[in-house]
Structures are given as C-alpha cells and as structure tokens.
C-alpha cells in the first residue's frame, strides 16, 4: 500500500477551500422535449403561443439560466414576456418561457429556442410553423 496516500489525493474532487457544490452548475431540463410545431396559421391574422418549462434536472443542485433567445426566422418567432435574467433555478423550481409564432407571409418557418446556462451549455428546442393563405374566406388554410 505504498501508493495509498497518492491515490487518495488524486481521487479528490474540487479544489482546496472550494465547495464542490458551488462549482457544479447542474443540468437544464426543458419541457416539451423535441421540436414544437405551432401549426398552420393565416399570415397577419392568427398567432399561436407555446409554453416551455425550464427546471434543474438534478435533485441536489440548481442551475443558473443566464440568457435565452430565438434563432432562425425571428420575424415569425419571438419571446413573449421574456423573464428577467440571470436566474438561478433551485431543485424543483420551474420557470416558464413563452414563445409566440406570428407569420407575416405564407410558407414554412423554422427556428430554435436557445437557453444558455452559467456553465456555457446551450440547449436548443426546434420551432416550426407554417403560414398559409385563405382564398375562400373561411379563415382556414387552403
């Protein structure tokens, strides 16, 4: 057991004088998972909104959300009532983020909701939607 002490020192985690929990940023959980489809809407007449729930995926440590934004067709997708950031989410705490879709023209639109945490990790959720014309006046997509 000549290497016992050296092995013990090399297996330690964190730095001397620092709480390992203070360095752990935790992971972010975003619901819903996968792509979010806003459906077919009439340009300049209809809009849709979807709610995303953000929380810490770790039961012991929280996560700090430092920024969030929408990439892609930012004219069609936008954050509604963006939360004040940065914000620390304790275990079990949730934060709601609402994304709205308002197409200004017909066609397929795509984007992503991007959430950045204090440890620099960016989580993306795909956003899709379609703007469609209504030629017969029934307020439905043709």
Describe the structure concisely for a colleague.
By secondary structure, the chain is mainly β. The protein is built from 2 helices and 9 strands.
Topology:
Layout: H1 4-10, H2 20-23, E1 28-31, E2 36-41, E3 48-56, E4 63-72, E5 77-80, E6 87-89, E7 94-101, E8 107-117, E9 122-131
Parallel strand pairs: 2-9
Antiparallel strand pairs: 1-3, 3-7, 4-6, 4-8, 5-7, 8-9
Shape: elongated
The CATH architecture designation is Sandwich
Q: SSE order in H/E notation?
A: HHEEEEEEEEE
- Quickly name the level 1 CATH class: Mainly Beta
> Looking at CATH, which topology would you report?
Immunoglobulin-like
Strand order of the largest sheet: 2-9-8-4-6
Strand elements, count: 9
Whole-number mean pLDDT: 82
Number of domains: 1
Q: How large, in whole angstroms, is the Cα Rg?
A: 22 Å
Specify the structural class. Answer: mainly beta
Sketch the major β-sheet: 5 strands, mixed
Helix content: under 10%
The CATH superfamily is known as Immunoglobulins
What percent strand?
over 45%
